[in-house]
Please model this.
Amino acid sequence: MAGKREENPAGSSNNLRGDVLRVLGVLKVATAEQIQQISAPHLSYRHTDKPTPSKRKQARTASHTGALSDLRKHGLAENGGQLPGGDTLRNLTPMGLKAAARDLGRPVGEMGNPARGAGRTGASHPMTVNEAVLALLRPKPNLTQLAKEPADIRAAAQAAFDAPAGLGTIASYATEVALPATGTWANPSKGGAQADIVITAPEDGAPLLFVEIDNCFESAQILAAKIDKYMRFCQRKVKDVDGKERPMWRTRWWVPDGRHGDRPHPPLLLVFNRIGPRNPDTVIAQLAELTERHWKGTAYDGGFHMYDGKLPIVVTGMKQLKEHGPAGAVFRRFGRPHKQTLLEAIGNPRREAADARQRAEHDVRQREHQAELRRIAAQHRAEREASRPVCAGCGTRFTDERWKAIEPAGWGALRETHPHLCDDCKHQAVTAERHAEQAGPEHQEHDQAVPGQKASGTWLSRFRA
Model:
């Protein structure tokens, strides 16, 4: 025990250090509180009896702060400056990124670079990215860890637990991901985009989602240029390991094949955090107009659109995202008048509804067709029964086998001897005929013998006379 304590002076467990590695491996830079909120959200409901907010924060982040200290001792983590409010930023070293890659199950080449020096400029953009990850992830508290807390605290945790879920786990997220329009994944050249967040949560309906964060400092024209880069990347095709040419993004991420005639590019979510001077409503309106060629679909009968080769673009505000999460109707897709949930916005619900109507109509037609076939079959059965022969002997209707037996056969087939009789009556008739045939010769012999006797008697009587 003493040896373990010497190795990890802060006394952190392997699980705690693993939590820190995974979170920082995704976010690149974060505070101890953000790490705690993602990896151990139940701690946000503890230590409520502390007198001040700072004391409560210190208490609930103590375990992860200890894990960060131990990781620093091993050269895996380091301090990355401070936020204006005084929170210390933490990031991983290159060796720490390698360790995080193992915990996340990712190739080291996909981990990106260490976020050193982010705190020198206030890290406003990375912190907004982290807020967006938290809002999209919406970690659920472990209620079993709060069994001894006061009733009001447990009620608050239960409300958070019962709220609509977010997307995926922390392993479903990546940040600062290069999307090369030229060059390679490892060495992207100029002209490509860099996604602030990439989400891969197919189990939650979001196989691949790019997220761009804007703090309202950039103009619509600059954002439109970024979207052009996204489009160039999505349109880029390369040879895969099997020698076949595919979109480059499909060589790294799995997404189900689109339906026939409708294979849009992976959707892009723009999250506007209103801390800069620009009005997001104005920017969004201009941006939709500037990028229309990228996102506008083709209208089809049935009230839906197809988006083959298009880039679905969805927008929302950070405040709304944090309040409602992905399940809230706070997302608006370019080209659609109403706000939707995130999954509705990145999908095609009108086409789904049209497909459902078409399937329902097809099912109705199938049922009607089957009903008509059953009616015709019943009519044929009734007509056949009406024409079924009746036995001339006993009056019963022929069985199917007897009916088939009396039907005309081909040339050379034996002719049915009793076509108007059923099997039983035919059997009786045949038996009677055989008896009659057997009895016929006996009567004939008897008749022939009687006249001889008479003649002989006559001759004898004459002889006696």
